[in-house]
């Protein structure tokens, strides 16, 4: 049952990414090109997603546990350290070069473009390579603090 | 994840339309971009949806800092690639 729920949620997210244009690197790069062919439409996608999630989180977290079972896993860290600047800075450079971030890249995988097939394995290698850094700083946190949505 | 990957295929099967997508044919560039995105996502504890959508909507200051940072470096990267080094 939970597999089917997860499958449906993945399908919904993927359809959202495709319909909004987030999974088209050309559109993402135009969104990021402030001084050229700027296409602001993805700002509304982002704004809309934040608005829905803002309301959704408030409604959902009134429950004691998720509808599909298990428990809520929420990030609890609020400190600003170097990692939360350096990591996203590196991420932004990659995003600006390729026009892909992780979710849309996975969505694009099924379409089989050569660029995607080069990007996704490299992304997985990058994630794997950064694990020691991420692990070294989560020491001292309780287990429920370690999980964070990406 | 299976759903994410299957979504565009299901859409094409249902609508009969091809999905418009333009990806750089520059394979070394896409490999470097992939490495940076993967590395940065894990290093910074989140990506566009993790920090940008979920974090901001929970009013997390960490996520605000992360989102402003990756938007800034992404803008600068595209500016350099397209307007300084040509493209």
Uncertain stretches of 5 or more adjacent residues of chain B: none
Helix/strand-derived category of chain A reads mainly alpha
- What is the percent of helical residues of chain B? over 70%
- What is the H/E string of chain B? HHHH
Shape of chain B: extended
Secondary structure: helix percent of chain A: 55-70%
Number of separate domains of chain A: 1
* Cα-based radius of gyration of chain A, to the nearest Å: 17 Å
- List the domain count of chain B as a whole number: 1
Give the N-to-C terminal Cα separation of chain A: 23 Å
Helix count of chain B, per DSSP? Answer: 4
Report low-confidence residues of chain A grouped into runs of 5 or more.
139-150
Q: State mean pLDDT of chain B (0 to 100 scale).
A: 84
Oligomer: heterodimer
By DSSP, the count of extended strands of chain A is 0
User: Mean pLDDT score of chain A, rounded?
Assistant: 84
Largest sheet of chain B: none
Largest sheet of chain A: none
Strand content of chain A: under 5%
Strand percentage of chain B lies at under 5%
Question: How many runs of DSSP E, i.e. beta strands of chain B?
Answer: 0
């Amino acid at each position: 049952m939970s597999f089917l729920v997860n499958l449906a949620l993945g399908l919904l997210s993927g359809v959202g990414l495709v319909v909004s244009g987030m999974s088209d690197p050309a559109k993402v790069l135009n969104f990021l090109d402030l001084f050229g062919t700027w296409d602001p439409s993805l700002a509304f996608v982002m704004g809309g997603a934040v608005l829905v999630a803002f309301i959704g989180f408030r409604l959902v977290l009134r429950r004691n546990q998720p509808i599909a079972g298990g428990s809520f896993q929420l990030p609890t860290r609020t400190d600003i350290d170097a990692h939360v600047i350096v990591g996203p800075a590196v991420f932004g450079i990659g995003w600006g070069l390729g026009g892909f971030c992780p979710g849309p890249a996975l969505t694009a995988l099924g379409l089989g473009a050569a660029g995607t097939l080069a990007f996704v394995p490299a992304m997985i290698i990058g994630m794997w390579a950064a694990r020691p850094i991420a692990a070294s700083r989560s020491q001292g946190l309780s287990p429920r603090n370690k999980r964070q949505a990406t | 994840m299976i759903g994410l990957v299957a979504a565009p295929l299901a859409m094409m099967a249902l609508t009969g339309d091809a999905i418009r997508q333009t990806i750089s044919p520059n394979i070394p560039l896409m490999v470097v971009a992939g490495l940076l995105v993967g590395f940065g996502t894990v290093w910074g504890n989140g990506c566009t949806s993790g920090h940008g959508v979920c974090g901001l909507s929970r009013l997390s200051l960490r996520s605000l800092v992360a989102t402003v940072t990756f938007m800034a470096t992404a803008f600068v990267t595209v500016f350099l690639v397209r307007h300084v080094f040509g493209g």
